[in-house]
Amino acid sequence: MLQNLQTAVLKPYFKRKYIEAGCDEAGRGCFAGPVCAAAVILPKNFYHPVLNDSKQLTPEQRETLRVYIEKKALHYAVAMVDNDEIDSINILKASFKAMHLALEQLPVEPALILVDGNRFTTWRNVQHQCIIKGDGIYASIAAASILAKTYRDKYMQQLHDEFPHYNWAQNKGYGTVEHRRAIESHGLCRYHRKSFNILSAQLEINYELQEEIN
After folding, report:
1. 107 and 35 housed in the same domain
2. E strand or H helix that includes residue 143
3. End-to-end C-alpha distance for the chain, whole angstroms
4. Nearest CA to 137 among 152, 115, 121?
5. What residues are designated binding site?
6. Contact 26, 54 (CB under 8 A)
7. What is the pTM of this model?
8. What angle do helix axes 198-213 and 177-186 make, rounded to 10 degrees?
9. Residues comprising the binding site for a divalent metal cation?
10. What start-end ranges are recorded for coiled-coil regions in this protein (predicted)?
11. What pLDDT is recorded for position 198?
12. What digits encode the pLDDT tens for the residues 46-73?
């Protein structure tokens, strides 16, 4: 049963005459794991009363919506770029690449791409529209945010089984205090993003904590 019912009414499309694909990513700010992106083409009459930006939903709501989106969407695809490639090309380019990879998996080419955020790299010369906080405005972007988030969370659960001491099942690779302390105790593993200067950030946190203690 869904809890914390959302009241957001999202727009069903940007331009009705176009086949639109909504795109969003998850995991851009994490210390570990891949960045994941989804591309979703919804029917123009798509509606769910709880659909919203994935960050505004509970895990249970996201999972329920994932099933609903996969059933009702005209087309959808999810892609990931791993931490090694993130370190190689930087997280911004990796986020764009993950979106491009998702778009390439769609069986039809959209005429317009709606992207959450303020920047995007053109894909196949297809027109795109960047929309700040678009995952709380347009249904297709919200749907993409939910698929990207749920697929990445499931993947991080698998990585947790390999390295349980970081508790990725709970923090999903984000830089929580718990995750930072685990890094301090166990060091970095092969799934951490080395280009994020995580150890330097940890030393700074430790210094701040010591100052508070003193």
Report:
1. yes
2. helix 139-162
3. 48
4. 115
5. 24-25, 116
6. yes
7. 0.89
8. 110
9. 24-25, 116
10. none
11. 84
12. 999 999 999 999 999 999 999 999 999 9
